[in-house]
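User: Could you go from structure to sequence for me? I need the amino acid at each position, not a summary. Structure tokens:
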């Protein structure tokens, strides 16, 4: 694995050639060769790797087939494949920064399932974020994304999640690494204080931290967890959230 300094140097070189390059796109470009070879743990045309994860998220969110889902940072559809299969036709919108990942996902879906379920796949930009918000999702998922967002881009990332989870009662689910203070734990990974995440996503309310575990076990006060937020349904039913947060495995 490259060092922090090597990664930053390579990103600076790439950015010098393309001032519009984001770290998110740089990271995706670095992972693309592994995805093509099928050697990346979470990317590539492999439908088996996401089955257990989808079932876990389905239970957490109490998903039903009529719900509408935006999968922000869907990659090559390792989880999206199972989500698409579960939902009613036209109820899935997947987004990623790299067209190649979406192409791998389409290949995995196959012609018949795509025709049957009619998923929408988009490359992330300002216009497609607006399109996805107008899709009015009941649930926004962003799996294996937050921990790879560079500090200079974290505000935009959380703003986009909040924009997508726009309708009253909409829920947001994403995994994160948390620490008492912001810190970089590998060349492509950052941890954030939970309070910082809550403030960045306000007025969404934190409902639960699922599967919270020490990371590394017994070390440095860092944890991993799956965070579930909700936009208050008060505008449609007059009830506000209690502020209680469920935490634990």
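Assistant: Here is the amino acid at each position, in order:
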């Amino acid at each position: 694995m490259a060092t922090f300094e090597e990664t930053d140097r390579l990103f600076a070189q790439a950015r010098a050639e393309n001032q519009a390059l984001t770290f998110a796109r740089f990271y995706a470009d670095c992972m693309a060769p592994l995805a093509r070879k099928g050697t990346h743990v979470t990317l590539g045309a492999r439908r088996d790797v996401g089955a257990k994860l989808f079932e876990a998220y389905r239970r957490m969110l109490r998903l039903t087939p009529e719900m509408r889902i935006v999968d922000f940072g869907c990659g090559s559809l390792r989880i999206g494949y199972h989500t698409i299969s579960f939902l009613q036709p036209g109820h899935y919108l997947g987004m990623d920064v790299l067209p190649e990942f979406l192409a791998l996902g389409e290949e995995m879906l196959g012609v018949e399932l795509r025709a049957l379920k009619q998923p929408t796949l988009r490359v992330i930009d300002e216009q497609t974020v607006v399109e996805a918000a107008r899709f009015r999702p009941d649930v926004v998922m962003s799996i294996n994304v937050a921990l790879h967002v560079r500090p200079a881009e974290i505000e935009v990332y959380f703003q986009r999640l909040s924009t997508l989870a726009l309708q009253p009662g909409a829920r947001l689910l994403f995994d994160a690494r948390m620490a008492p203070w912001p810190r970089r734990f590998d060349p492509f990974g950052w941890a954030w204080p939970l309070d910082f995440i809550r403030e960045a996503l306000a007025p969404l309310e934190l409902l639960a931290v699922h599967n919270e575990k020490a990371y590394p076990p017994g070390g440095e006060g860092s944890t991993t967890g799956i965070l579930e937020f909700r936009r208050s349904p008060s505008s449609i039913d007059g009830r506000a959230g209690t502020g209680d947060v469920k935490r634990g495995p």
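One structural detail worth keeping in mind: The longest strand covers residues 205-214.
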